[in-house]
Amino acid sequence: MLRSDNQRKNIFRTMIYVLFSVVLLWVLGSANNGYAESSSESLQVIPVPNPAADLWRAVRQREGSIQATSTQVRSVDSGVLITETGEKFRTVRRARIIPYLPYLLAVSAGLILLFYFIRGQIKIADGHAGEYVVRFKNIERMVHWFVASLFIFLALTGLILLFGRFVIIPVFGKEAFSLIASACKESHNLVGPLFLVGVVLLFFLFVSRNILAKGDLRWLLKGGGFGRQHVKAGFFNMGEKIWFWLVITLGLTVSISGLILDFPVFEQSRWLMQLSLIVHGIAAVIFISISFGHIYLGTIGTEGTLRGMTSGKVDVNWAKTHHDLWYEKLSESEKTIDEDEPVLEKPDGESATIHT
Q1: Is 113 inside a domain boundary?
Q2: From residue 262, how far is each of 1, 180, 191, 273, 285 by CA, in Å?
């Protein structure tokens, strides 16, 4: 009987302990949930933002970010630290424009080579007469060679800056390209503004003789000097007039866009600089490609043409072959100038011979 009473007491104590433990766990759990809820409510009511968040949003130029409003640097877009359009522009220029420009140069050179093999050199009809007529004055030849020299120099340095990394680096290495590109950049920027001066001088010297005249369209429709049939022409034929206006148009385009890039201190925005760089590169490559034809026809392509820009005189038969309308308007004394006979210029700019 005693043992039974002890067992009952032990069972009772165990039930008390279990009940006490359950109550204690419930109380502790309720207190913990209440503390978590109160903590959550306190965090929502009193936010603690990152003080550097606005700064980094402005730096990254994220949409809806706070733009910089003041800076010690006073220039256009000086408050913009990073622009997303800069990398997009670089990608488009490097991947979608530059790789295709060499094809334009190659096609132009290929067409000239093909024409040479098909047509050959354009000869002077009836051969050299041995008598010459003055075609260009000294000032005209000086300006022509001034512009031509600048053009060749700017073309070479510009092509190195545009395509040099793809040719020079694999062959000579990055150090050599760095030195060459730096020299080309500085010299290109220094010489570039002089080209604009030359283009303006060319315009005023030759514009009066490059206006569309009667017979120019006929010359163009009949293939001009490229065909076998003789076509009449004045001082400049239609092909030369087209080249003149291309020189003026493309020359002004590359010069103005080059000045925008050369002097970025006149409130130019980033987008204007980027646009000028693309226009400058494309116009320059088109200019160089077309110049291949002019250089070819002015040297080995057409017999006797180069003499006009070196000595200023051309063979009489050359004048009859290519510019007979101009030759017919010359006076008799101007039509017969011996090769070794000295030539002076009249006050009005016309040539005159000295007879001994």
Answers
A1: yes
A2: 115, 19, 11, 10, 18
Domain match, 300 and 342 both: yes
Give the whole-angstrom CA distance, residue 134 versus residue 282: 38
Same domain as 72, residue 169:
no
Helix (H) / strand (E) element for 29: namely helix 2-45
Same structural domain, 72 and 96: no
Is 167 in the same domain as 196?
yes
Host domain of residue 226: 84-353
Give pLDDT tens digits for 251-309.
Answer: 999 999 999 999 887 778 888 999 999 999 999 999 999 999 999 999 999 999 999 99
Residue 289 CA: distances (Å) to CA of 188, 242, 283 = 19, 15, 10
pLDDT tens digit sequence for 313-356 = 999 999 998 998 999 888 776 666 666 555 544 444 444 443 33
